[in-house]
What does this fold into?
Amino acid sequence: MNIINYIEGLAPTFTMDDLRALKRGFCGESALRNIITRWRHDGWIEKTDSKHWSKVSQCPIATLPQ
It folds into this structure.
């Protein structure tokens, strides 16, 4: 699975547990935090509260052709 598939597989608002379930245990806790940090730094997601993240318009799947 590539990064687009992971982002596409998440709901518009998601938690770290949702990402963990999508990765099916193949990722440690620090790796999951790094993914979230990268996506946030790249402007693909934003934090909505202490446990939830939301995809934003710059998210790669928002620009994919329909």
